[in-house]
Structures are given as structure tokens and as C-alpha cells.
Specification:
There is one protein chain. The chain is mainly alpha-helical. It has one domain (3-104). 63% of the residues lie in helices and 0% in strands. The protein is elongated and about 50 Å long. The N and C termini lie close together (6 Å). The mean pLDDT is 95.
């Protein structure tokens, strides 16, 4: 996957996580906590792996990465979160999770 596509993915994911942070179930779910952590780690790894490419991006593209990092840094997740489906609170159909589905997009992009 090229650098800007990867950055756009993290920007999209950060936006979804910011919205789901306001959801009373998602924000207290283990999947949310894991996804926030994974996104932060993924961006750090991206910055290390693609430092040269990132340094030459046009301003509007580099701003997407900055925005994603800012959004993610502002998200507080519960270290003691439990899976809301396993706890019987989340009534989304089996195999459906707003947070996990958004994270999984990266796998589908190659």
C-alpha cells in the first residue's frame, strides 16, 4: 500500500474512533481500547518506516497524518474495558462491530 493511502486509512480510522468514543457502549469496549492502541502503534510504525516519503508529501497530505495523530492522542480508552458483546450489552448482529469493521478496511486495501 502506498504511503498516502496508508495515511488516509489512519485518518479515516481516527475519525471513526473519535465518533465511537462518544458512543456509550463502544467507548467502554475492549475492541475500542485495542483499536485505539493499535492505531497509535500503527502510525508510529508508519512514521518510522516511511519517514523519507512523509517528509516529501504535499502539505495537504501531511496534514492528514498530523490530524490523525492529534485525534488519537485525545482519545481516552479504558484499560479495564470488557467486550460489550460478551457482557451482553451490545446488540449488533454476530460478527458486526463498528470499530473492528473500520480497522479491518486496511486488510482489504492490500
Amino acid at each position: 500500500m502506498d504511503c498516502i493511502t496508508e495515511i488516509r486509512h489512519y485518518h479515516f480510522l481516527a475519525g471513526v474512533l473519535a465518533q465511537q468514543h462518544q458512543d456509550p457502549l463502544c467507548s467502554r469496549c475492549k475492541a475500542f481500547t485495542n483499536c485505539v492502541r493499535s492505531a497509535k502503534e500503527g502510525i508510529a510504525e508508519l512514521e518510522e518506516r516511511r519517514a523519507r516519503e512523509i517528509s516529501t508529501l504535499p502539505e495537504e497530505q501531511s496534514q492528514l497524518l498530523i490530524a490523525a495523530k492529534k485525534i488519537l492522542s485525545g482519545l481516552q480508552s479504558d484499560p479495564d474495558a470488557v467486550g460489550q458483546k460478551k457482557a451482553g450489552n451490545c446488540m449488533l448482529p454476530e460478527g458486526v462491530c463498528f470499530v473492528k469493521s473500520s480497522k479491518a478496511l486496511k486488510k482489504n486495501m492490500g
